[in-house]
Amino acid sequence: MILSKAVVTDIEPIFHMIASYAKDGILLPRTKLSLYENMQCMTVAKEDGEVVGCGSLHVLGHDLAEVRSLVVAQNQKGKGTGRAIVEQLMEEATSLGVEHVFSMTYEVLFFEKCGFEPVDKESMPEKIWKDCLSCPKLRNCDENAMIRRTNAYIEQSSKRFVSSYSYRS
Predict the structure, then answer these.
(1) Which domains does the chain have, with CATH numbers?
(2) pLDDT of 93 higher than 90
């Protein structure tokens, strides 16, 4: 399996994978236009040149990003594809200096295995004001919010700790 940033020829298979999950109510649908507009945020997993999974990292603020549209082809489930995509997105968040990454999901166990912890949805106003207000599930949201600290958080915490104990000579 090879992970890479999405290119225009990946959008069609990504669209169909997301649509199959959306019809079952697992993901919100995405238009092809929104996928093209946001493809620079998308990571794809390919096997033998075919897209077998994807996910995107959407930065919402100076210290918060979201894993979005994480999907894996049915024949790839349980093979580590989803986890590999999540880890790639976490590395990307770290390189951008983002300290926390969250996901709104039904797959709590999967995200726990990836190091995420449950968090109250209302603790993420960036998400609520940006996306949730236009969601058809707003009043009856049944997704779970999960969050994980990135290595950028650990690095920044370490720097803050060291600087708080610095002595002047």
Answers:
(1) 2-164 (3.40.630.30)
(2) yes
